[in-house]
Design goal:
Layout lengths: L37 H4 L3 E9 L6 E7 L21 E2 L2 H11 L4 E7 L7 H15 L4 E5 L4 H4 L6 H7 L4 E4 L20 E4 H11 L19 H14 L1
Parallel strand pairs: 2-4, 4-5, 5-6
Antiparallel strand pairs: 1-2, 1-3, 6-7
Helix pairs in contact: 3-5
Length: 242
């Protein structure tokens, strides 16, 4: 799984520096700055739309799953929508339905997933602009991406990605890495991924010129607690069985 032509994952940017934590990785394709863009790859297709969900970010949300992703992370949960032509076209009717669902008082906001949202900006910029026009900042916008924050801040990255970020409140960044999988992480699949406060991160970037992002202040991962006595009892039992 997760491989391109020749059966290999590729680090296209082996000569680039400061691409973020855990990058480059052997578990996904690693692009150069600006190598992948929405205008070249996207077909404005939607794989799924789910209203009133509680798993894709904080609170009750509406979730838009866009089609297409070239990162091809090994053991990706959504491998079936790597194809940019999967699903169905984004329509005005779907957009109107999303806005209607968001207007409900119990809905906190919308989440962009995929697929790769930052390679489907033609759809998501249009939707984001309408959300801000209709609701201002009363509804928040979450987004998942295979890019790291540092990669998105690289010179040469396409302007549409940064424009979409300007509408996003919370970004979950980074490739999924199977060797760092942890089911107790909040809203993430692997420990290299981060939940970022985008407006605070953009302000810090503008003020300092550095790409270091700001972690979401509500982060609260769970932790396993295994009593020491359990470990001793288990070791004793295994010894007796051998």
């Amino acid at each position: 799984m997760g491989k391109l032509s020749g059966g290999k994952l590729h680090d296209f940017a082996a000569d680039e520096q400061n691409r973020g934590p855990w990058i480059p990785t052997k578990y996904a394709n690693n692009p150069k700055a600006g190598q992948w863009t929405s205008d070249k790859l996207s077909h404005d297709m939607i794989a799924d739309y789910k209203p009133l969900v509680m798993t894709d970010g904080e609170g009750i949300r509406c979730s838009v799953y866009v089609s297409g992703c070239p990162f091809h992370c090994v053991e990706c949960f959504n491998e079936s929508i790597w194809d940019f032509q999967a699903g169905h076209p984004y329509t005005q009717g779907l957009e109107d339905k999303i806005i209607e669902d968001l207007s409900q008082g119990v809905v906190q906001g919308i989440t962009f997933l995929g697929g790769e949202p930052l390679l489907n900006t033609g759809v998501l910029l249009k939707l984001s602009k309408r959300i801000r026009k209709e609701f201002g900042h009363d509804k928040d916008i979450w987004c998942w991406t295979g890019y790291t924050w540092e990669e998105l801040m690289r010179p040469g990255e396409s302007a549409d990605k940064l424009e979409l970020l300007s509408y996003v409140d919370i970004l979950v960044d980074g490739r999924y890495m199977k060797d760092h999988h942890d089911s107790l992480l909040q809203f993430r699949g692997s420990s290299n991924q981060r939940i970022l406060d985008v407006p605070a991160s953009l302000r810090a970037h503008d003020e300092t010129g550095t790409s270091a992002p700001v972690i979401w202040p509500k982060l609260h991962d769970q932790h396993r607690f295994i009593p020491e006595v359990y470990g001793k009892d288990r070791s004793a039992g295994e010894g007796a069985a051998s």
